[in-house]
UniProtKB/TrEMBL annotation:
Signal peptide: none annotated. It comes from the Bacteria. Its EC number is 2.7.13.3. It comes from Alitiscatomonas aceti. This is histidine kinase.
Length: 526
């Protein structure tokens, strides 16, 4: 059975039960009230007749009286619900009775003994020739103060039953009409409910709700929905998990649960707030708040909470993939160039030069490229380093990146362009130094360490070292031991370091090599 039919039957069943119950109680009350009215009527008529002077005089005289009979006939005619009025003396001689042809004979059967013995008025159920009767007995007290007889007033039980049946018929008709009205109202209520549900059947809406509830609870993001008053009306399971155990977010003000919310601003402007950093119950989060609906009919605010660590991890993976792609493109370009060089050597008969070139090219392996791309997630820096690796390999120099290096754009203290300039000049200076040396081991190790506290760049080579006189002027503009028109690279490095508030340290030993260390600390950690 569909939910719509269930709702219809539920509405109709409840209405029908209430109708039957209310009408049944009312019918029971009215039937009993009608019986009580008849009992009151016959008791009152009996008391009135017993107090009539004509009746008292008639019983005292011991003879029936036509005038008294006429008065009693008039009394009987005034009460259509009254069937019988009978007057007896103490010896049970009947002095008056309504027409026996219509009302039949009343059989007293000893019911009069109590009233003749001085009992107060009472009502019994007796038997007559026309069936059972409700009888009211009342004593007639003569002028001498003694009981001279009694009055019996009665109504047939069949008449009372007929009155009850009439009442029941009316109530049954009312019940049928009200059931029809209830049926129509239940049907109309279900149709109105369907229209208020934008044409969805309740069963469809239930399935849609259960499906959406399952989907929302299966999401990794925490979702809170607040209404126009800022009260939370929905929270999925990941959102509930962000709050302390036992704390129920539903019905709570969003501002108390989530102090960083900008829900009121969004309700006024209708503009979403995306990707703001925040903290909730000690959890570092990235929050986005979106209005539900458009101005001027915004219905609330949807708050989406993402774990900052997971977002940064995904961003890191995406950055690494992009850096790897750019690096592979550069590697592919350099590989094609190398093939052209090797082809040129072979076509010109320079076999030994081709062998030497191939040997040096093997200094840059695909594993080294992958390691570089994994460590350096800024694709401009990664591409520069890979290019320098290729160039160094052509000169027989092994350039590697320290495996513990870590560089992401968001963690760099300086601009990416400045970092590229620093790394490029340090590597070029080291390559030139090793290319001009006669040392057997020619290696360069680059390290870039970027974190929330700061950035450190190291560049170590196995060159000849820097003599003390040269070390004093190494950062001077135009100073170089390599000839005219040189000496600007390290000067530019000094300028960038000074502008960014960093420090330079040089660890060198003649005949062993040199290590440049650039240190940059964020201002908030100084």
């Amino acid at each position: 059975m569909s939910l719509e039919k269930q709702l219809f039957l539920s509405f109709f069943s409840v209405s029908a039960c209430l109708l039957v119950l209310s009408l049944g109680i009312s019918l029971f009350y009215n039937v009993n009230r009608r019986k009580a009215e008849i009992d009151s009527l016959i008791s009152g008529v009996a008391a009135y007749a017993a107090s009539m002077d004509q009746v008292i005089h008639m019983l005292d005289s011991g003879y029936p009286d036509r005038e008294t009979a006429a008065a009693l006939d008039g009394l009987h005619e005034n009460f259509p619900d009254l069937n019988v009025i009978a007057i007896y003396d103490r010896n049970l001689l009947r002095f008056y009775h309504t027409t026996r042809r219509e009302s039949g004979e009343s059989l007293i059967n000893g019911e009069e003994q109590a009233v003749l013995s001085g009992s107060g008025p009472y009502i019994t159920t007796g038997i007559g020739t026309h069936g059972t009767q409700r009888r009211a007995f009342h004593a007639v007290v003569g002028n001498d103060g003694a009981i001279s007889g009694f009055v019996m007033a009665s109504a047939f039980s069949t008449y009372i039953a007929e009155q009850s049946r009439q009442i029941f018929s009316v109530y049954a008709a009312v019940l049928v009409v009200m059931l029809v009205v209830s049926f129509l109202l239940s049907h109309g209520t279900v149709r109105l409910l369907r229209s208020s549900l934008m044409g969805y059947h309740p069963q469809e809406l239930l399935r849609l709700y259960l499906r959406q509830d399952t989907v929302l609870n299966a999401m990794e993001e925490g979702i809170l929905a607040s209404d126009l008053t800022g009260t939370v009306v929905f929270a999925n399971q990941p959102a509930r998990a962000l709050f302390p155990p036992g704390e129920e977010p539903l019905g709570q003000p969003i501002g108390r649960l989530f102090p960083a919310t900008r829900a009121q601003e969004i309700l006024k402007t209708g503009s979403p707030v995306m990707g703001q950093g925040c903290s909730l119950s000690g959890h570092p989060l990235i929050c986005s708040e979106i209005p539900i609906g458009n101005l001027p009919k915004i219905q609330g605010v949807l708050t989406i909470l993402n774990d900052r660590y997971e977002v940064e991890t995904l961003s890191d993976e995406l950055s690494g993939a992009r850096s790897m792609l750019d690096t592979l493109r550069a590697f592919n370009h350099e590989f094609l160039n190398k093939l052209h060089v090797i082809l040129g050597y072979l076509q010109t008969g320079q076999t030994q030069q081709a062998i030497t070139f191939i040997t040096n090219s093997s200094l840059v392996s695909s594993q080294a490229i992958r390691q570089t791309a994994d460590c350096l997630r800024v694709h401009q820096i990664c591409a520069l380093v890979v290019g320098k690796m290729m160039h160094a390999a052509e000169l027989g120099i092994l350039l590697t990146v320290s495996p513990d290096s870590r560089c992401m754009g968001k963690d760099l203290v300086m601009d990416v362009g400045d970092c590229v300039t620093l790394v490029g000049n340090l590597l070029e200076n080291a390559i030139e130094e090793l290319h001009g040396s006669k040392k057997e081991i020619r290696e360069i190790t680059l390290g870039i360490y970027a974190s929330t506290e700061g950035t450190v760049i190291t560049c170590a080579d196995t060159g000849r070292g820097i003599p003390a006189p040269v070390l004093e002027r190494i950062f001077d503009n135009g100073f170089s031991t390599k000839g005219e028109g040189r000496g600007t690279g390290l000067h530019l490095v000094r300028q960038i370091v000074d502008r960014c508030g960093g420090e330079i340290s040089i660890d060198t030993e003649e005949g062993e090599g040199t290590c440049f260390t650039l240190t940059f600390t964020r201002k908030e950690y100084q």
